[in-house]
Design brief:
The protein has an 8-stranded mixed beta sheet with strand order 13-12-14-11-17-18-10-19, with helices on both faces. A hairpin with a 3-residue loop joins strand 5 (95-100) and strand 6. It is globular and about 75 Å long. The model has no long low-confidence stretch (mean pLDDT 89). 38% of the residues lie in helices and 21% in strands. The protein folds into 4 domains: 5-91, no CATH class; 95-139, no CATH class; 181-344, 3-Layer(aba) Sandwich (Rossmann fold), CATH 3.40.50.300; 353-543, 3-Layer(aba) Sandwich (Rossmann fold). With 544 residues, the protein is α/β, with parallel strands linked by helices.
Amino acid sequence: MSGPLLVQSDRTLLLDIAHPDADACRRELAVFAELESSPEHVHTYRIGDLGIWNARAAGHDGAEMVTVLERWSRFPVAHAVVTWVLDTAARFGVVELLDDERHGLVLRSIERDVLDSVVADPGVAALLGPRVDAAFVVPAERRGALKQALMAAGWPAEDRAALVEGAEIDVAAAPDLELRDYQRAAVDGWSPSGSGVIVLPCGAGKTVVAIAAMVELGRQTLILTTGNVAVEQWRRELLRFTSLDEDDIGEYSGRTKRLAPVTIATYQIMATRRNGRFLHLPVLQEHDWGLIVYDEVHLLPAGVVRMTADLQGRRRLGLTATLVREDGREADVFTLIGPKRFDAPWRDLELQGWIAPASCTEVRVPLRDDEPAAYAAASSDRRPQLAAAAAGKVAVVRDLLERHAGEQVLVIGTYLEPLVRLAEELGVPVLTGSSSTAERQERLDALRAGERDVLVVSSVGNTSLDLPEVSVLIQVSGTFGSRQEEAQRLGRILRPKQAGTTASFWSRVARDTVEQDHAPRRQRFLTEQVYEYRILDAADLLDG
C-alpha cells in the first residue's frame, strides 16, 4: 500500500486514518500542520505560516517539513507546495532584534535587501528609529508593537535582545516539588530563551512547571490567571511546592489589591477600563518583575496583550492545553509571549499513566412538542439558548447520573437560566460566576471530600478547577464551535484515577440545531489528539 497522505496544491493535507502508517504520519504532521476536520475516514490538515514558524522556533527547518510530506505522500508533492514551505520557513528569524553597544535595541538582518523590503512596510516603518549602519534603532517601548507589525508583514523576528533580571526573591523548592520527565523537559525547553509557551493537557501539571521555572529563576513573579477560583488554586500550589509563606504571595484582583514578591492577578482586572484607559496596567507595569506567567494563555484578552507588548524586556511563560484561539489571533501569543517551546501529546501522557484515559460520547437529543416551531421562529442569537434548554436533555442527564452512581460528576454548561433550572430539578448545588467565594469554596470542598457526588457548574468551571477525583463530565451546552472550551472541559476529568478507571465525557447535543452544527468543530482539537467520539441517539441511550 502507498502512503497515507494526499498533499494538495492548496496546502490542504488529507490523511487516510485507516492506513497502517496513519498514526506515525499524524505525529510528524502535528509539528507544523493544523487539523481542520476529522470525519470517520479522512482527516484534513492545513499548512499555515504560523505552524511553520512555530516549528522553526522549535528547531525544525523547512527541509525537514518537506521531507515529512514527501515521506508519507501517496503521490509526488507539488513543486509549488515544496517551494512555499521552504520560502515560508526561511522567513523566520531573517530579521532579528538585538542589543547594540552604541545604539541599544536595534532591528537587523544579515540579508540587506530583505531588511530594505521589510522596513518599507508602513506599519513597520512607523515604529523604527533612525538607521545606523546596517540596522535600525528601535525605541525600547516599541519592542512588542514592532514584533506584531513584523509578523503582520510576514517577517517574524527572532528576539535575541537581553531580558532584564528583575528583583530577586528568596524561594526554594519544597520536598513535594518533584518533576516528572516531561515537566523537566518543559522547563528545560523554555529556560534558555526566557520566553515562550508550554502546551500540556489539563491535569498534567502546568502549574508545577511554572513554579519550578520560578524557583530556578529566583526572581519576583507576576502570575496572570482567569479568575478568583484560579487565584486560590495558584496560592495553594505555591504554598505546597515552595518555601513561600502567605506574606510572600500577593493578590491583585477585583476583591483585593496587594503586591508581593509573587503576585497573582486576574485577566479581568488587567482589562478593566475607565474613560478608555486601562486602570491597573501602570501599577503592575512599574514593578520590577523578573518573570510573568500567563495561565491559560490562549484566553489572552486585549488589555493584557497591550501590557505584554510593553513588557517585552521581561521573561514570559505562557501555559495552555491548546494554542487554539477562536478569534484567529494566535499570532499575538506567538509574537508577544513567544513561540511554542514544549508540547506533549495528550495520548502519550495517557499511555504513560500521567493523565486518565477518557471515553467521549455525543448524545443527540431531539426537540419535542412545540420546541421545533419555537426554534425555527427564533432569531439566530436566541437559537443557541433554546437548544441548550431542550426539555429532553433532563432525562438524559438523569440517566447518566444513574449509570455513574457512586462516581463524582460535573455537569457543565454555558447558559445560566437552563443550567440553574437543571440543578433545581436534579436537587444538586450549582456554582456560577455570581456565587460568593464562600459558596464556591464550600461546594468544591464538599466534592473533594466526597460529601457530594454531583456539582453543576457554569463556564467558570472551564478552567482551574482542581477536582482530582471527578471522573465524569456531562456537558449540557457550550460556546458555539469553541475547540478550546471542549479541550478545557475534558481536562477537568483527566487527573490520574485508580488503575483501570476511565474518565467519561458526555456531551448532550440538541438534534438539528446549531449545537449539532457546532459539535464537529468543538471536537476537532481533541480528535487531533486521537480521542474518538461515539455518537448516540438519546432514545438508544435511554433504552439501553
